[in-house]
Input
Amino acid sequence: MTPIIECRGVQKWYAGVHALKNINLAVQRGEVVGLVGDNGAGKSTLIKILSGVHQPEAGAVLIEGRPVVLRSPKVAMRLGIETIYQTNSMVPTMSIARNLFLGREPISLGIGGIGLLDQARMRRESVQAIADVDLHLRSPDALVGELSGGQRQGVAIARAMHFKSKVLVLDEPTNHLSVKETNKVLGFIRGLKPQGVTGIFISHNIHHVFECCDRIVAMARGEIVFDSPVGGTNIDHIHDLL
Ligand SMILES: Nc1ncnc2c1ncn2[C@@H]1O[C@H](COP(=O)(O)OP(=O)(O)O)[C@@H](O)[C@H]1O
Ligand SMILES: [Mg+2]
Output
């Protein structure tokens, strides 16, 4: 099968630091991969390459078998790669509905052919998108600033699902969340697979990865040092590797 996303021989340097050394990673459609590793292993650098924030010095990224140049986050998003960071990119002073459509607002034609934001459509579709990830929020008009951290991550995941992202990358999305909120976010991640969405979930908590991923990839010092289905390994083994 052609992988939905693949890195071939990816290398990245920051000044003197060789942050990624010949990374080869292929992810299949609908697979949820947990990426683990100590601080400084290169996890964030790898996902920044996949999300168009950084460009590799060598190697290639392929989407559905085709080499792509992820020149910017916008280009990556247009190609179906959506990234959620620990502090996500929502505007607290805007409503849930507006945040869901941020940068992708539907326009309707007003009197005289003037383009207007289609508020009704944004409200309607955001209610549906949020219900689809099993997130229960009072109203699409509530301000994102009033939501908890876990709810905000839920809205970010709903946004990615609504726009039919091919690959959802989550870099430490549960950092700074309470246990209850963390469980909620892990539930959202478990919900990706039944919907056929591919996920790459970065976490320093190996237990969380075992709870919601199919496959575990471990990095150390800029290299992939382990890659196995979750069923083929165990938490102690991964701990010993890192
Ligand atoms: N913007 C940067 N400038 C210089 N060095 C960086 C930068 N970002 C990361 N690094 C270095 O690259 C290596 C990998 O970092 P990173 O990808 O953030 O690892 P991880 O996410 O696994 O903790 C580390 O040695 C880190 O110090
Ligand atoms: Mg990181």
Summary: The chain has one domain: 5-241. Residues 5-241 form a domain with the Rossmann fold fold (CATH 3.40.50.300). The chain is about 30% helix and 30% strand.
